[in-house]
């Protein structure tokens, strides 16, 4: 829910900014114009710390898992004058516990489990910052590794779905497209963004979330 | 037994020929305030006043607009939700002039699915434009090597005939409305599982859908848009059967597991996103698809879609 609210917030801010900045078609900006260039006496290096929330949007092999929830992230970037940026990020989620009834023995038996999971990830980001008046619109695609720790508690089985153990760690690659809006504040900036996570592992659910980041140009 | 509605296409084509003449389009193009004359795109690329609304840069997806004469477009796309871009695409398109463009999705072609597209922007007035898109698709199950091991397409021959009448109305310098009326007819030879992507993903179906789009253009280089795909009629063609055994070369009749149609709640897609002109020839598009269809295709009711497009 918080992810959706953050996403809606991004859109509202964007719409309001757009209403204020909309100008006639006769005065287009030059390509690459903006305040995101080292030639404008701003360092190309940036570091952001973000707080957010994400929620799983898919089931995993019939199980409800939400290894996301509240998150803390750190993101280092290098931005070229053209607006392209390259970065490295790390993101940790607190995860959550979901109680659910599942059918076992071909549906003959129903048991209750408490599926606890949390996740963390590391990745590389490729992005572009499009000047939008005094703001900047960030397009970004992250590619990285996700590690999920899970625990299904004590149940009278050795395996569950296709999880070989009742607790352990699984990993996989992820893609993380995102769209954000940056508000520069001198050396610092505020970035709100929405993102989606697509996971290659069938045991890690996809997610959608929002992030509020505070950044500084180093 | 069902056959593709060629009569319907012929009737629709006749109506469009009546309304759309090349002469009216060319004359209308010249009236566009501030727009370049209909010269080849390569000559216009040097014009520094290119904005996201310029003829060589405006959005073509779900709009009436097409590439300019001798203009090429290459696009890379991830996670589309329509038959022409499902899972992704690597498209090559070319503007033939007089509002015509042709294209092919090489990613689908590489996977054994023939996916061509043609589009004709037959009316282009300053505040109103109409276009017609026809993008036939053919897949022979044994050629789709990427899914050969699954039962999804094995033994199937699938023909799709999507036709779209697309309207665009840039009523203000910063506001544009689009409406696409899409009709897809399909012909499937073979046996289809009830929960197959072909049915649940509403790919091999007969469907009439409306797609209204609102675009908000900001600062010449970025547009935000909200789009709804609303399939008002989605029917399972009689050629698809999940009950009768497959008889090679014979069209199978009957309904799929008792279903003859799929309700709107299982087929709608809501999309919001942004499209930016990075340079005069490079465009980025990011959107989020929400709806049951995205969940059926990607197992995820909120799925992103990315597109990078280059035009020359």
Descriptive overview:
The complex is a heterodimer of chains A (218) and B (312). Chain A is built from one helix and nine strands. By secondary structure, chain A is mainly beta. In chain A, strands 1-2-3-5-6-7-8-9 form an eight-stranded antiparallel beta barrel. The longest helix of chain A has 20 residues, at 2-21. Chain B is mainly β and 312 residues long. Chain B folds into two domains: 1-28; 53-311, monomeric porin ompg (Porin, Beta Barrel). Chain B contains six helices and 13 strands. Chain B has helices at 6-19, 22-31, 41-44, 106-110, 197-200, 292-298; strands at 72-78, 88-97, 100-105, 113-125, 128-134, 137-140, 157-172, 175-189, 206-218, 222-235, 269-279, 282-290, 302-311. Chain A binds chain B through residues 7, 11, 14-15, 17-18, 21-32, 57-59, 83, 128, 130-133, 137, 139, 141, 175, 177, 179, 194, 196, 198, 206, 208, and chain B through 34, 48-51, 53, 78-79, 173-174, 216-222, 224, 272-274, 276, 278-280, 284, 286, 288, 295, 298-304, 306.
């Amino acid at each position: 829910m918080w992810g959706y609210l953050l996403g809606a917030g991004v859109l509202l801010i964007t719409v309001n900014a757009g209403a204020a900045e909309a100008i006639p078609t006769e005065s287009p900006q030059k390509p690459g114009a903006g305040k995101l260039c080292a030639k404008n006496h701003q360092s190309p290096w940036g570091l952001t710390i973000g707080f957010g929330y994400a929620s799983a949007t898919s089931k995993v092999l019939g199980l409800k898992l939400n290894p996301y929830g509240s998150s803390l992230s750190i993101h280092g970037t290098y931005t070229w004058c053209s607006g392209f940026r390259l970065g490295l990020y790390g993101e940790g989620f607190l995860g959550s516990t979901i109680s659910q009834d599942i059918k076992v023995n071909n549906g003959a038996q129903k048991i209750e489990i408490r599926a606890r999971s949390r996740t963390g990830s590391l990745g590389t980001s490729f992005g572009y910052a499009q000047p939008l008046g005094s703001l900047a619109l960030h397009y970004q695609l992250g590619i990285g590794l996700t590690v999920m720790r899970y625990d299904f508690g004590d149940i009278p089985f050795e395996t569950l779905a296709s999880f070989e153990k009742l607790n352990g760690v699984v990993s996989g690659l992820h893609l993380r497209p995102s769209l954000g809006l940056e508000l520069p504040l001198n050396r610092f900036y505020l970035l709100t963004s929405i993102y989606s996570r697509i996971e290659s592992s069938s045991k890690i659910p996809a997610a959608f979330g929002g992030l509020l980041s505070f950044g500084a140009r180093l | 037994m069902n056959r593709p509605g060629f009569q319907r296409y012929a009737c629709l084509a006749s109506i469009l020929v009546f309304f759309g003449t090349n002469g009216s389009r060319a004359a209308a193009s010249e009236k566009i305030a501030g727009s370049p004359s209909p010269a080849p795109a390569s000559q216009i690329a040097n014009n520094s006043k290119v904005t996201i609304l310029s003829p060589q840069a405006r959005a073509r997806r779900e709009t009436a607009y097409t590439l300019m004469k001798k203009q090429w477009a290459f696009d890379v796309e991830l996670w589309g939700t329509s038959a022409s871009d499902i899972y992704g695409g690597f498209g090559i398109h070319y503007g033939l002039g007089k509002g015509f463009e042709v294209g092919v999705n090489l990613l689908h072609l590489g996977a054994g699915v023939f996916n061509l597209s043609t589009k004709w922007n037959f009316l282009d007035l300053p505040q109103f434009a109409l276009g017609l898109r026809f993008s036939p698709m053919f897949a022979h199950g044994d050629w789709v090597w990427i899914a050969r091991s699954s039962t999804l397409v094995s033994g199937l021959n699938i023909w799709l005939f999507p036709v779209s009448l697309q309207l665009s109305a840039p009523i203000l310098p910063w506001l544009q409305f689009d409406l696409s009326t899409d009709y897809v007819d399909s012909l499937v030879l073979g046996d289809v599982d009830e929960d197959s992507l072909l049915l649940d993903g509403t790919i091999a179906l007969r469907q009439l859908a409306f797609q209204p789009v609102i675009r908000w253009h900001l600062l010449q280089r970025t547009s935000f848009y909200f789009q709804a795909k609303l399939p008002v009629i989605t029917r399972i063609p009689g050629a698809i059967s999940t009950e009768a055994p497959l008889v090679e070369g014979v069209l199978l009749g009957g309904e799929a597991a008792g279903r003859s149609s799929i309700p709107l709640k299982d087929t709608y897609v809501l999309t919001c996103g942004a499209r930016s002109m990075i340079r005069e020839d490079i465009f980025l598009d990011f959107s989020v698809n929400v709806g049951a269809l995205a969940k059926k295709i990607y197992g995820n009711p909120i799925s992103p879609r990315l597109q990078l497009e280059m035009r020359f």
